[in-house]
Amino acid sequence: MLVEKNVPLQHSNSFGIMAKALSLVRVSAESDIAAVLQDDALRAMSKFVLGGGSNIVLTGDVKPLVLKVEIMGKRLVGETAKAWIVEAGAGENWHDLVTWTLQMGYPGLENLALIPGTVGASPVQNIGAYGVELQDRFESLDAVDLTTGQRFTLNAAQCAFGYRDSVFKHTSIATSAGTPGFGLAGKALITHVRFSLPKAWKAVLGYADIEKKMQQAGVHAPDAQQIYDWICEIRRAKLPDPQVIGNAGSFFKNPTVSPEQCADIIQREPKIVHYPLADGTVKLAAGWLIDACGWKGKSVGNAGVYDRQALVLVNRGGPGNPVTGGEVMTLAKAIQTSVYERFGILLEPEPVVV
Ligand code: EPU
Known about the structure:
Layout: E1 4-8, E2 20-27, H1 30-38, H2 40-44, E3 47-50, E4 56-57, E5 65-69, E6 74-79, E7 83-89, H3 94-104, E8 128-129, E9 132-133, E10 138-145, E11 151-155, H4 156-159, E12 188-198, H5 208-217, H6 224-238, E13 247-250, E14 256-257, H7 259-268, E15 274-276, E16 282-284, H8 286-292, E17 299-300, E18 303-305, E19 312-315, H9 325-343, E20 352-353
Parallel strand pairs: 2-5, 3-5, 4-20
Antiparallel strand pairs: 1-2, 6-7, 7-12, 8-9, 10-11, 10-12, 13-19, 14-16, 15-16, 17-18, 18-19
Uridine-diphosphate-2(N-acetylglucosaminyl) butyric acid binds near residues 253, 310 and 311.
């Protein structure tokens, strides 16, 4: 095991923020974690698990020991009457996995094409797009406890998935019964994720952007490859490519409000984009709220609001003068303040601030 010192992280976070890992160990197998835990000094350090770095804001050099996940491999590990079970190493690129499953004839992940990041990060925030969330295709995952070195497996219920949420984002989750629960933030490293891809594949359509593509192409029953191609086109047209313009995808979660709150806002803001949810609450489009406050295209220092999707904050600095985490957070707070002042809604950031 090699402990690297003062490792530049600019190319390991999708914002392109300049920061260093004071100490970093590359984890390409479970044995690398065992080696870290056998070392007294390393065992005592707090740990920061780094995947593709596509959902983080670095506000300075990272002092905890960075465990850079590089566990690879993708394979079919099982088959039931209803589904293919595919397993991937946590270090695999998410989009490569989606592409590979389609090539192998196991559709089901196509709506999640082109989401940046790694397989290991996908359950942490229960990634989702165009009507599909990771939890809809999830079978189980393996992880290692970073204190004891014990390997454990979690099923979907144990992951406590929610909208952009899971047990891995909490230090302690209250259960539905109100008793204190158990959170795994900072305590575990995901090594492998298994997906259950239904043999009776059914297209997930219904999103306005997809409906538009269907109409334009005159296609009423698209196959998985067609949906994958459309999703790639839609995302490329609307979202900045992190290789070209640094960003961390949606910066805020879409907030939910009660029907009464929503009715009250509609009275004042008749055009507000909102979607009623099955549980009776109403989801509001955070991008619309930010846009309505006039933020689209604006900048604070080198931090900017993307001009084609106000929900995405971008790095407007050049490679030698990139945005800082502080600038991103200053812009984020200014947006939160103006959305709160106009709509009475506090937007919750999606990325992890380090
Ligand atoms: N809108 C505006 N102005 C904007 C942005 C959006 O008016 O600047 C309006 C749009 O016209 C639309 C509505 O807001 O009516 C929703 O916008 P969009 O369809 O682009 O989706 P979103 O709610 O902004 C969510 C996810 C995305 C995911 C898309 C598609 C969250 C936080 N974001 O965005 O996920 O790709 O739906 O399913 O849930 C990500 O998490 O990084 C991400 C990109």
